[in-house]
Amino acid sequence: MNDMCHPPGLAAAEPFTPLHYKSATKPIWCPGCGDYTVLNAVTKALALVQRPPHEVAVVSGIGCSSRIPAYTSCYGFHGVHGRSLAAATGLKVARPDLTVLVASGDGDGYSIGGNHFLHACRRNVDLTYIVMDNHVYGMTKGQASPTTEPDWDSKLSPGGTGVRSFHPLVIALAAGANFVARAFAGDQNTTADIIAAGIRHPGFSFIEILSPCVTFRPEQKEWKNLTHPAPVGPTDDAARAAKRIMTDDGFNIGVLYAGHRAPYSGGPGAPTRSLQEMESAFAL
Amino acid sequence: MDASLTSEARPQSAAPPTPSTPQKTQAFSAGTPTASTALESISIAIAGSGGSGVMSAGNWLLEAAARSGAYGLMVKTMGPQIRGGEAAALVRLASSQLESLDDSFDVLLAIDWQNVHRFADEIPVKPGGLLVCDVDGGEIPEVFTRSGARVLSLPLKKMAKASGSWINMLALGITGALAGLPVEALEQAVRTGWTRGEEALQTNFRALREGMAAAREHAPQARRIDPQQGKRWLVSGNEGAGYGAIRGGVRFVAAYPITPATEVLEWLAPALVEAGGSLLQAEDELASINMIIGSSFGGVPSLTATAGPGLSLMTEGLGLAVAAEVPIVVIDVMRGGPSTGIPAKSEQSDLSFAVGGLHGDAPRLVLAPSSISDCIETTQWAVELAETLQSPALVLSDQFMGQSRAIVDAPQLPEPKGKRLVAEANTPNYKRYGDTPSGVSPMAIPGTPGNTYTADGLEHSETGVPSSQAADHARQLDKRARKLMRHDYGNRWADIEGDGPLAVITFGSAAGPVREAARRAAAEGVDVRTIVLRLIAPLQPAAMAKALEGVQRVMVVEQNHEGQLLRYLRGVADLPGRPAGFHRPGPLPLRPADICTALREWAQAKEETK
Question: Is residue B482 part of a domain?
Fold first, then answer.
């Protein structure tokens, strides 16, 4: 049997269920990892938007979270560390007909891929970027990431890095992301709703998902008690959104900003010149 | 074309002056030690400080020559300043196609001498050559007068000021007359692309004619180039590479600006839109290569262009394209290295990196255009091969080929062929990385129902599931190596001329001076076979063995310090005898005379005892 098998094609009228977006490949994640529920939320979100799996591409880099594409029945791209946004940008610009999700983690997305994050926000290509943030490098077994607290002790940085942590949501706003949200892996349904809203929103949608690492950050199990719905709905005023995000407790869940910036407009079009006409520029 | 050239006033003698019988009226001599066998050509350098319009003058001169039935090329050379630094247009014209600069220059026209002495090594003036300069331009740098060249001082600035024209128009008139070009062709070259008013144009035309008259008065023995019939193109290697990419089917480009590759991208930006595609300016080269991998994963043939520093950043992406079997093309317009090196000067020193510079066992395609005009066909071929073999293809161009403009015979370009093998919808038991006899397995394009898979840079099973098992690793390594080795590359892998027992192997822009040197050597009785590699990796052992049949000794010629091609070939090919190397780094071009001398000495030397 094909070890990548997925449910057979459906009749056009039949709606897609979350199960249609799941592959048979067994995740390598630790028991209790938040990424399992993120995977469930992704498949639920895709069922909400009802795009057939073969018209969806899930693109990732390297890390625990980046294993997610192969666990879906969509087209997947598991590239190199930190470059998921670049690969997804090329794919979406060249193939605007596809729905493109990008999956990353706090190391992949904010550290090695930090520059691409800034430019993806400002470029505003119609992508949905979910970052499973657990404030730790899990795959390499427990080092500090850009979102790790400065005093978190690890073998690589005994006593903590002493470096202040990165605030991805504010940076995304400042760089021009068109949709900014925070989700919590433990609340699958809300996360699915937020991802679906991000897919539907034009331009670059950034969703930071608090996804506990029970192996290296067991204290994150507390997140289920700390997270709560954002007290107000999204704003389209970036300054107001930034102020809210910078002053909240870090556990506000929901869509925090939804802007109206026009998405990136480059991409394919109808040819207007033949090869012969192009050659004429060289001919004497 | 023919008529317009012959209508021009000319010296009585149709034959160009010969070095053995110098005439008193001769402005400059074609005399070089090998002149009797040298290609008849005229080399003119127009130099000055930035803003004096030397590049425009050079371009007009080249275009006028093209309109007059001549062949030629123009190389730009500049100081490191972005604007306002010293600059020179190096133009060589002949009645047959040119691929190289000559050993030295017949004419150096300096609009001013501001820092022009820095070009002393790049613009060696022939002993019988001519220096044209402004009367009030100050002392001529000794490095130029040392050769014994004649000096023609003209009141260039005063003439321009008096007529209200541009000084480079005088330069164009003078050099145009010295090259024996007709006024009509010079005027037509200027008129094309003229954006100002007709009155200004006529004022400048008067200056152009004044320049021509001054040249004829003081240096009446103009060189003449026999006009040749036939359709011509005027193209730079960078433009040609861009056009070849589109011909090959490229419809998406992501790139980061870098000297000397930027012109490829600037040419492609509007052209891709016209072809129905698009170009995206990325934030860095890490992004650009991953963007084209993403777009190609989406089924769209994709390319980027860069130079050495960008290629260094792209290595992780190249490895990903190998492992995930995603077709991409990377044009590397090589410049002096390592590191930032010499950005605006040519060198063939990225070869070792191109053939070997990835971690893991990572077979890839490495190609090199064999001339400026071949940048078109080789880039097109690179796209076809990348698509057919689902592999990254590197195209090694260089600053000389990329930024030089040449008058070439309109190329007979092959129809693009070679497509990506794609999976049909709902293929039963679909295996993206199936271990097929050819090594090429059908690629499912997103949007195709029933064949979804995950492309992966992790080692994987035939279906694409990550695997660290020995059998999967061995199977995929074999598959990826086999698809490149088993492909039939036909006879495009190299251009082979001659059949002597001595063979010179070279690639890229070194091919031009090698071919010219081989022709000179042949005239001296030294027959040399030339093998210009177009497909460097994977090298074809059987084809190479056939090309070397009857060869006793091999010399490898290239423009780098370490002899990178020589080292590579010693590793992958059976070369007869003890291979010799002629390798020099940039930034000075390889000169035909130096290669010819090396060939002569090499041919005379007895083969070393084994």
Answer: no
Instruction: Count A/B contacts: CB-CB distance under 8 Å.
Output: 200
Q: What is the DSSP letter of A108?
A: I
Give the chain A residue whose CA is nearest to the CA of B448: A54
Distance CA B596, CA B518 (A): 7
A278 at interface of B, judged by CB pairs closer than 8 A: yes
Interface membership of A11 toward B (CB under 8 Å): no
Domain assignment present for residue A189? The answer is yes
pLDDT of residue A28: 94
Does residue B12 have a pLDDT over 80? no
Model pLDDT for residues B87-100, shown as the tens digit of each residue: 999 999 999 999 99
Q: Which residues in chain A are closer than 8 Å to B330, comparing Cβ atoms?
A: none
Mean pLDDT of B444-472: 97
Distance between CA B243 and CA B410 in Å, rounded?
Answer: 14
Are B252 and B297 contacting, i.e. CB atoms less than 8 angstroms apart? no
Answer yes or no: do B254 and B398 share one domain: yes
Q: Would you say A109 and A61 are in contact if contact means Cβ atoms under 8 Å apart? A: yes
Question: Cβ of B287 and A79 within 8 Å?
Answer: no
Give the mean pLDDT of chain B: 91
Chain A closest-CA separation from residue B288 CA (Å): 7
Share of chain B above pLDDT 70, in %: 92
My answer on whether omega of the bond before B538 falls inside 30° of 0, hence cis, is yes
Cβ contact A70–B284 (<8 Å):
no
- The two tokens of residue B492 are 């495009």
Domain assignment present for A3? no
- From chain B, the residues in CB contact with A90 under 8 A are 252, 254, 280, 290-296, 298, 302
The predicted pLDDT at position B30 comes to 36
Number of domains in chain A: 1
- Strands B405-409 and B71-78 come out as antiparallel
CB–CB of B447 and A55 under 8 A?
A: yes
User: In chain A, positions 192-221, which contact chain B (CB-CB < 8 Å)?
Assistant: none
pTM value? 0.93
> How confident is the model over B237-263, as pLDDT tens digits?
999 999 999 999 999 999 999 999 999
Residue A256's domain is classified under what CATH number? 3.40.50.970
CA B274 – CA A280 distance, rounded (Å): 14
User: Structural domain of residue B510, as residue ranges?
Assistant: 494-604
Residue B435, CA distances (Å) to B200, B323, B484, B489 in order: 69, 14, 14, 21
Are A94 and B295 in contact (CB < 8 Å)?
A: yes
Please identify every stretch of chain A with a pLDDT value under 50, giving residue numbers as ranges: 1-10
Q: Does A249 touch chain B (CB under 8 A)?
A: no
Pairing of strands B328-334, B392-398: parallel
Which of the four pLDDT bands, split at 50, 70 and 90, describes residue B26?
very low
Residues B369, B281 share a domain: yes
Q: What burial class does residue A162 get, using C-beta atoms within 10 Å of its C-beta: 0-12 exposed, 13-18 middle, 19+ buried?
A: exposed
Taking residues B171-178, report their average pLDDT. Answer: 96
Residue B542 has pLDDT above 90, yes or no: yes
**Closest residue on chain A to B296 (Cα):** A91
Q: Do A79 and B280 touch (CB under 8 A)?
A: no
Let me know whether B266 and B188 are in one domain: no
Considering the domain boundaries, does residue A83 fall inside one?
yes
pLDDT for A13:
56
Closest CA to A104 of A125, A126, A88: A88
Instruction: Give the DSSP H/E element, type plus range, for residue A247.
Output: helix A238-247
Mutate to test the interface with B, among A80, A111, A121 (most CBs of B within 10 A): A80
Chain B: give the shortest CA distance to residue A41, in Å: 19
Q: Which residues of B touch A278 (CB under 8 A)?
A: 243, 246, 271, 274-275
pLDDT tens readout for residues B483-499: 999 999 999 999 999 99
Which of A72, A125, A284 should be substituted to probe chain B, the one whose Cβ sees the most B Cβ atoms within 10 Å? A284
